[in-house]
Amino acid sequence: MITDSPEFRLLVHTLDDAYEIASVAFPREVNWKRFERLVQNNKLALLAYSSVLHNGNLNVPPFWRARFSAVLEEQQAEHAKFAQSIDQVNRLLGSTPYVLVKTYRPFLYHTHDVDVLVADVDAVGKVATVAGIAWDDIPRGSVQIDEPQWLDLEFYPRVLPGSIQAIDDELTLANPVRMTLAGVETWVASPEVETVTLMADAALRLYELKLGDMIYIYSLAPRTDWALLEVQARKYGWIQSFEEIAGVLNALHQEVYGFESPIERTISSRKPTTTVPYVPSWKATIRALSGLSNRHLLKLGGYLSVRLKIGHPRMHRVYVRFFQVPVGRFVLRYFYQ
Question: What is the rounded average pLDDT of the residues 168-179?
């Protein structure tokens, strides 16, 4: 069981305030190197390191205390750009309807980018050009702004970049949630769009579902129309992956919190996972991509990268340096569609 790991139990307890208090035992001893790797793979450094450094019941050795503090300082400096980035999105879009997706979390969270869904992406590029802001269109059909004063600003017309469709286009901007993030008024995607984006990314694009993503989905689950998402996944040919990920969410919820996930009211399956982030199997990924179109099997290079990152980090660094970096832009422009 994944909860046999003391490092996982510690990490999940750092998220107690985000959803529910985990029922698993708080660990007495932790392998800090393993904990660091688990935190890095799940991109939870801002929350996790802040939590452990302020927990008087944990004996964090000086070496690791200094290491975690250095990472915190770096991420806090980057996170300071968040408010400026949201404000810039508002300036670029004006009165144009939009929603942020995969950007907000109900806990301390550092993101390197701001993902924005907007119907007319071409108009965003034109406004940026007039304002003298450089932008790129890789992957095609998007607008990517990379300026040092902001987090990366990424504008897409639908949930998944490229030609893969996960839900009806008219649902993308439906029922937005008005929120104030870092003191700036903005619109966040509906619970259904936030949830389906994370699940579709895990099945068809990014090939992993991190612990923070899972906790966020749990927090949204009581307000999410799971029957609607099930219908949409079936309509667009990724129902098996959708049900598999829902099963993983259900099983992990029971294991960590000791009671049934809200998702089980609609989707009752459970599929235990031994790793977090959850990474779909080779079989499931090939089935999902080929079920849409055989040309999507070209994306298996990205899937391999994720598996190497989780299981073989040294090999992953070599793979990224000698394959992904040299051919990345070419693949994104001409094949990642």
Answer: 97
Render pLDDT for 69-84 as a digit per residue (tens, 0 to 9): 999 999 999 999 999 9
Say if residue 98 is in the same domain as residue 177: yes
Identify the CA nearest to 311 among candidates 268, 280, 275, 267: 275
Lowest mean pLDDT among 16-20, 80-84, 321-325: 321-325
Pair 120, 27 in one domain: no
Structural domain count, the chain: 4
- Dihedral of the alpha carbons of 199, 202, 205, 207, in degrees to the nearest 10: -170
Range of the structural domain that residue 215 is part of: 190-285
DSSP letter at 215 equals H
SS3 188: strand
In this prediction, residue 335 has a pLDDT band, given cuts at 50, 70 and 90, of low
Q: What is the DSSP string of 12-40?
A: HHTTGGGS----SPPPS---HHHHHHHHH
Last residue of a domain, one of 249, 266, 285: 285
Cα–Cα distance measured from residue 221 to residue 167, given in angstroms and rounded to the nearest whole number: 18
User: What is the phi/psi pair of residue 176, to 5°?
Assistant: -65, 155
Buried b (16+ CB within 10 A) or exposed e, 297-328: eebebbbbbbbbbbeeeeebeebeeeeeeeee
Q: Rounded to an integer, what distance in angstroms lies between the CA atom of residue 9 and that of residue 27? A: 7
Residue 296 to residue 57: CA distance in whole angstroms: 49
Please state, in angstroms and rounded to a whole number, the distance separating the CA atoms of residues 49 and 28: 17
Question: What pTM value is reported for the model?
Answer: 0.94
- Where a domain ends, among 38, 53, 79? 79
Give, in order, the Cα–Cα distances in Å from 269 to each of 195, 238, 250, 254.
18, 16, 7, 12
CA 45 and chain centroid, separation? 14
